[in-house]
TrEMBL record:
The keyword Hydrolase applies. One of its GO terms (cellular component) is membrane. This is beta-N-acetylhexosaminidase. Residues 539-585 form the Chitin-binding type-3 domain. It comes from Saccharothrix saharensis. The keyword Hydrolase applies. It catalyses: Hydrolysis of terminal non-reducing N-acetyl-D-hexosamine residues in N-acetyl-beta-D-hexosaminides. Residues 1-22 form the signal peptide.
Amino acid sequence: MTLPARTARALAVLVLVFGAIAAWNTAPTPASAAEPLQSLVPVPVSVQPAAGVTHTITADTRIHTSPAAHGVGDQLAALLRPSTGYALPVADTTGVPADGITLLIGGAPASVGDQGYQLTVTSAAVRLRANTPAGLFAGVQTLRQLLPAEVESRTARPGPWTVPGATITDHPRFAHRGAMLDVARHFHPVATVKRYIDQLALYKVNYLHLHLTDDQGWRIVIDSWPRLTAHGGSTQVGGGPGGYYTKAQYQEIVAYAAARHITVVPEVDLPGHTNAALASYAELNCNGVAPALRTDIAVGYSSLCVSKDVTYTFVEDVIREIAALTPGPYFHIGGDEANATTDQEYRTFMDRVLPLVGKYGKKPLGWHEFVKTTTDTGAVAQYWGTTTSNAVVRNAAARGQKVLMSPANKAYLDMKYHSGTPLGLSWAGFIEVQGAYDWNPGTHVDGVPESAVLGVEAPLWTETVVTPAHVDFMAFPRLPAIAELAWSPWSTHDWDAFRLRLAAQAPRWTALGIDFYRSPQIPWTATTPTTTTTTTTPSGTWTPNHAYTVGNQVTYNGVTYQCRQSHTSQPGWEPPTTPALWQRL
């Protein structure tokens, strides 16, 4: 980037975000960056501070809502009550009260659209307006970040609960702001998924893509093919019991996400990545022989039998049953790494499968390879490549198809931060926080203009991710970086400013119990806890906060394990739950 371009971007930040009173490009200290209006992630379109003005939430504060906003008002009250200890009653209003917190549907500027909001804070009142409940919910997340980090506590804290005076007008750059959680490689129970949904909501993510099936496990009950979960869901990477969601549990996840204005996108990866299905039903194999279940992380070897009619009966049953449980517009059909099918077989398969998606009321979304088989402009290509040129995606955009940006070397949250990261893979390279932030989804792929980009998604594959603490470590702080790319205008994009705002998020994560990666690229404040490590090479009984190298042997609960990757151990990374780090002997 040239110096004039950098200067122009800095000026855009000043005009759009802070008017004439703040300049992030002057590299303020972490302490000054912690001022709430200068610490928002994602950064809003426009912030007009009111100098010397604050609003304090007290025991007498009431939350007023227009009838259509009552549900969001209840969510705001539920967030604030535990930490403040205040009653914060929620009541409908037909006017605009002069005090308290008021949430209104209607009256927002037309520019905020159906996902944006306008937030006005005076000494007397907080007023939040939007055109839809989704926009109002997004505004609540901004209000939440304007309060002290202790507001996230689930127990009463002393306060005071002050909000800086300002008018914030905001709306997203892209309509689709997604995150993916792979529950197939390692199964993640309902509670873990809900926890992740809550984390996504804080950063205005509005789509959760669930990777429900793969070679190592099938994680959703299909009534017409019960062995998919009974057998195909019985293990996972590295062994272990695996698991799956009943239909009721899946619907519970969908409803929990919807209450936070997040739409679930189910994925059944086809025709490859299907060993769990092939192991469950011999008839889905061309030779009629069911293979063994797999617990390794190899890819590209499996395929449904394209020439058999039973294959399409199976696929239709799966699409029909999952679509009936999923109110969102998309069904993700995978389509990647189908190395065990010929190009003609792949086209034959997609020609029969894509109409089935439409038959059950969904739009097809898939990894970008699949759009070489269709000219349907409603089909969305999710780009996961590592280059900035791709003919399949370029041609799809030229036809009018939308592209969801997830370049693996920028947006994959399962990539290691650096060579010493104890979790993750590195086939797409290492992705530190700056690498996750410094790319432009609207210009990243040649021939795919911003008008063709549906949005951005950050996938988290789980070959090495077993526990909620692992999810935290890999997603934070990169998830907020990707979320800002999806929400904020490109004119506000500036790494030096972002790293300071990101640092100011750390106390909030700590209050939420998020065990994040302390990147050396971020100037974390002195209050941010750090992980204690040693420089020794221990052996013997496994303990946390020790440096282990490849070949070290330890015992844990009477079982011996050998270190596979050099790392510093942490609670939640015990040998039985971290097969990427430890091999049982």
